[in-house]
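Reopening this ticket.

The earlier resolution said the output was attached, but the attachment link was broken on my side. Pasting everything inline this time so it's all in one place.
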Amino acid sequence: MSLSLSEIVIVFFVFSVLGWIMEVTLKLIELGRFVNRGFLIGPYCPIYGFGVVFIILIIGDGLNIKNGIAPVFFSGCVICGTLEYIVSYIMEKRYHARWWDYSNKPMNIHGRVWIGNIILFGLAAVVILHILYPWIRYGLDCIPEITKWILSILIIIEMCIDCFVSRMAMHVIRDEIDGTALDDSEEISTKIHKALKNGSLTVARLEKAYPTMRISPDILKQKLKEYEEKTRKALQELEDKKAEVFFNVSQKAGELGDKMAEIDKDDILSYLDEKKDTILNRMKEGESHDS
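Inline output:
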């Protein structure tokens, strides 16, 4: 059941395209219009390609589970469910947004996977290994080896270019989230959707592909934590300034007290007596002048 490197690339690409067709068809039924699904620009959803390759390599080759529907079913549930969870986690941490959310679905795990999809993953594993793989193997054997390598190289080049361009568009979302001062997830999500609609064609496509995309609650908590930390530091700096001013005033008052203590009391009294005599003399002179 093993696949060569070139065959892995071809199988990955074919099922990525088939996965994209399925997603587009479901959205066409749901919304009544065409929606180019997926993160990439081209007609493929890589998560489906990875899922099929993992099923063939891990279940078929690694675990050597070729017979029996139940073992294949449960293995597919675990492997593909884990893959969907990891992809959701990485995308959320990388771009600060949650692209799909199953929080309202029954038996979900952190809103990233839920029992309905997990069951479908298990059924898909059974269909792929017991029904589709013999046809896949037959089709691959009909293609000359040199042709398979040429096709795989072209696929890799095309998808690398697509990943680079799409990555630039994805950064719009992360930059919008990082640059906003809002503290409400719904307000931020609305702001991001607006920015996507007003962007280039590659950017605007993401808004149509994921109309329910919203900011990650974990990212919102992180932003609030950052604001709280900045506020705490600002208050601490203010307290430090107040303590510094109080210390300087106290120091100056102490210095003034020390200087006052150094002055002789008799000298002060003598000085006041002199001033008193001077004032009295001036008062007498003033009275003489008036008379």
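Reporter confirms the inline version is readable. The CA atoms of residues 20 and 55 lie 18 Å apart. The first helix runs from residue 5 to 31.
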